Write the structure tokens for this entry.
Amino acid sequence: MFSPLSSLFGWLSNDLAIDLGTANTLVYVKGKGIVLREPSVVAVRKDFRTNKVLAVGKEAKMMLGRTPGNIVAIRPIKDGVIADFEVTEAMLSYFIRKIHNRRALVHPRIIVSVPSGITQVEKRAVRESAESAGAREVYLIEEPMAAAIGAGLPITEPMASMIVDIGGGTTEVAIISLAGIVYAKSVRVAGDKMDEAILQHIKRKHNLAIGEHTAEIIKTSIGNVIAEPPYETMDIKGRDLVSGVPKTLTIDSSEIMYAIGEQIDSIIETVKIALESTPPELSADIVDQGIVLTGGGGLLKNLDRRLKDETGLPIIIADDPLSSVVLGSGKALENIDVLREVMID
């Protein structure tokens, strides 16, 4: 039935595609493109009875590891799924209002990307968070499918496209043909686990305590999967665990290669298992087309070279690996026929 009120809400709101990532949340507005790219972090003040949201996104990330006792900086998405329902809802509400210039009457249609191995309970949590944040309708799309669309792969053709999407919380490996996922594997090994490995390595080897944020900067600055002399170096600051005082030391890329080795091996193993599980006809396509790398992890130095050495296949890094998932979700939103084919229940 036609409702003047619902059409008014529709007219007031812009439909959104959201990549609800462990590390960053990206938002695409129909007709405008990507309008928001913020860390998935919320700073909350814990009062006697209530929790008050103080900051969201970049502001909140600056507070990680720097807050007094009554303020906590929370990352509500863990391993690609919602770990803290209320905080996720607050974060989504904030982003939706920010995009719509703080108008309260906005009820957009939202498409959210989710990991391929997600359970029904986790799907429901995403749906309910988006609805509580003000969505009129919520659609879900699997991340590897969204990444493949965003990377410009011919997903509706009867040929194989293989995508490896390395985010903050999960690595998604998928083979897509005829707008469907033929094989998908989601492993909870990605950027965050690498940061943690760097942090632990520096603690063990140098007796230096550093924060998550510093570990991430080390990874993006001198992280290398095949480090060769002359090694890149970097000065880092932290707390000496023996004397308890602040200290600066120099580390190089060979140490970081060693620190993240286990995570890289795990990702490569997942890719190899996917290739072994591929039907022969589609394997032939992958030999011709190669493997497409997306996600922030795809930018790790020499990961493409290591993958090529291990698989013998051509490796292509997507044009904008950090935005592939949200761009693909956005394209599905712009083209509702594509959306119907790739949407999941």
The chain has a mean pLDDT of 90.
